[in-house]
Amino acid sequence: MLASRALVRGLQSGFWRRVSTSSSAWAAHTHDVDVIDCSVPQYNNRLDTPLPDIPFVRNLSAEQKKLKEKEKGPWTQLTKEEKLAIYRLTHELTFPEMKKGSKEWMTVLGGIFFFLGFTGLLVWWQRVFVYGDVPHTLSQEWVEKQTQRMIDMRVNPVHGFAHKWDYEKKQWK
Amino acid sequence: MFRAALRLSVSGARSLTRSRPQYTASVAARSYSHGKQETDEEFDARWVTYFSKPDIDAWELRKGMNTLIGYDLVPEPKILEAALRACRRLDDLASAIRILEAVKDKAGPHKEIYPYVIQELQPTLSELGIPTPEELGIDKA
């Protein structure tokens, strides 16, 4: 009880701390923020929007800045690694990476089966340990006597129960 | 003829087919019930002019490219060449590579379109030094 209250308190202070941070500090982060500043353009990976609004990496280190300077010259002078680095500065994921998909569905399906199985265990336990005995009128002996009485009474003799009993041969048809 | 190879107008929507040029005149794209319909040549010319603006800015490049990719067609190589040259004017190699990736994605199941486009663009790519995604190894995830 106390632990859960402390947990909630911790979550709340974390939330407010993030919101009170100035927007410029958070605009500089373009990866994995909990609270997104929607008043500035966001980076996004979309197949139908190949050129995103802002580059992925905003705060360039010194060597990244040097690379950007080199980009202003002829591109024939860039090595393949430099060209790839320039691409990765502006874009987080390539098209094939965007389209890749994940194995999450296996986890989801596995989780579903697991919890179905767990529910089955609960249902079995309930059947064995919670439910009392069935009424005595469902016992083998009682049902036999009941069936014999129904035959003697000719229950549903036209199309139903007694119709299926052969009274000559004293057996079911 | 090559334009016809790239476009087949089916129920007013632009889409592409597999077979090589059997089609004669290019057919207009949008099925307005009234008004003049823009021909393929006019569409291409409009977009080439857009990207050929000498002082195009980065926003216009992004807007143009994202809009063009939104259409139900693969852009003609001449439009793409103008866009790549615009990237050069803006010193933006990453966008140039991204445009090539987007073209391949737009072709969808029609696997012969992208090699054709690259073949048509090869002089420009070599001149400007733009690598294809395959050369950089980013065509596989």
Structure, described:
The complex is a heterodimer of chains A (173) and B (141). With 173 residues, chain A is mainly alpha-helical. Chain A has helices at 2-20, 23-28, 62-71, 80-90, 95-99, 104-129, 140-153; strands at residues 165-166, 171-172. A two-stranded antiparallel ribbon of chain A has the order 1-2. In chain A, helix 3 packs across helix 4. Residues 16-28 of chain A have low confidence and may be disordered. In chain B, helix 2 (40-51) packs parallel to helix 4 (77-89), helix 4 packs antiparallel against helix 5 and helix 5 packs antiparallel against helix 6. Chain B has helices spanning 2-6, 40-51, 58-70, 77-89, 93-107, 113-128, 133-136, and strands at 8-10, 13-15. The model of chain B is unreliable at 8-28 (pLDDT under 50). In chain B, strand 1 (8-10) and strand 2 (13-15) form a beta hairpin. Chains A and B meet through helix 4 and helix 5 of A and helix 3, helix 5 and helix 7 of B. Chain A: Keywords: Membrane, Mitochondrion, Mitochondrion inner membrane, Transmembrane, Transmembrane helix. Chain A: Pathway: Energy metabolism; oxidative phosphorylation. Chain A: Pfam families: COX4.
Short structural description:
The complex is a heterodimer of chains A (173) and B (141). Chain A is mainly alpha-helical and 173 residues long.
Measure the end-to-end span of chain B: 35 Å
Could you give a short account of the major beta sheet of chain B? 2 strands, antiparallel
Low-confidence stretches of chain A: 16-28
What's the number of helices of chain B? 7
Beta-strand percent range of chain B: under 5%
**Rg for CA atoms of chain A:** 37 Å
What percentage of residues of chain B falls in helices of 4 or more residues? 55-70%
Profile the largest sheet of chain A: 2 strands, antiparallel
Count of strand segments of chain B: 2
Largest interface: A-B, 29 and 31 residues
User: How would you describe the shape of chain B?
Assistant: globular
Distance between the termini of chain A: 68 Å
Q: Mean of the pLDDT scores of chain B?
A: 85
Structural class of chain A: mainly alpha
Structure annotation, total helices of chain A: 7
